[in-house]
Amino acid sequence: MKPAAAVSTIALCAASLLLGAVPALADEAVATTEVRDEVGAVQPEEAQEVAAVPPAGAPAFKSVFDGNWATVGLGAGLVPTYAGSNNFQLFPLPLIVGRVGGIGFRPAAAGLSLDFLSPQPSVVSRDKKPTLSLGPTFRFRNDRAVDSGDDVVDAAGQLDNALELGINAGLSFPGVLNRFDSLTVSANARWDVLGAHEGRVIEPGVTYATPIGRGMLVQVGASAEIVDDNFADYYFSVSPAQSAASGLPVFTADGGLNRLGTLAIISVDLDGNALNGGLNVYGLVGYSRMIGDGADTPYTALRGDPNQFLLGLGLGYTF
Known about the structure:
Radius of gyration: 22 Å
Strand content: 35-45%
Number of helices: 7
Strand order of the largest sheet: 2-3-4-5-6-7-8-9-10-11-12-13
Oligomer: single chain
CATH superfamily: monomeric porin ompg
Number of strands: 13
CATH topology: Porin
CATH class: Mainly Beta
Distance between the termini: 36 Å
Largest sheet: 12 strands, antiparallel, barrel
CATH architecture: Beta Barrel
Structural class: alpha+beta
């Protein structure tokens, strides 16, 4: 294990889901103030859901999520030094997510995504319809642009940093298994604009989130990464010159399905009530598997491991 020279792109993929927990937890918290209008209609088995709700006519509690809000913080984690590496690095991770002027923002795999259709958090009622998210996204990619911790891999030469710009879209379905959970299907497509890999990346994903009480949210996500030939050739091919410098065999990579992964997250508001903001803690564990030429390349097959793991912990403040 070695200190991180730069933030891992694998780690920041996790950040996108990790901070996505905040608005989902806000939905459940806001729900506790709105559900009082339904008290007269609840069935006996639903009584526990509204037991803690103030009586009708009581002053409404102002939520931190009314209007503009943000969560900022810092996390730390342990991740591979590059996609396919079996060396790990400890990384620092700045965190930010929120909604200002009706526009949502959240981290997205070493970058940022904006949501121009971001809804105000609200109760997940039985007749609430799916919500759409749409906006630009960007990602900074530094795979093998910094010290990988492997002298053979480094001998093949460092790569250039890539900046990928694109668009992200998602569709969230509330109330799937209970009144306050949600299932979100999303995808983004990005293109390198710095002339590094000069390729395209498509990342579809699905996330299920459900609150446990007012102060805890459990979230499980699955995602894939699909790359084109330019991307695969840049990161996974071994040219004759690279082979001579490193001793790795010559390899020609093609695009296709590059990665499948899953991530589990638990987020906890430290005073047990997400509605009033304040400090919150996030823990995550993830696994992904390199697929196709991303697994077959000598950088992974001979010098790394197609099985990729990550652990992380973050502390945030919501206001």
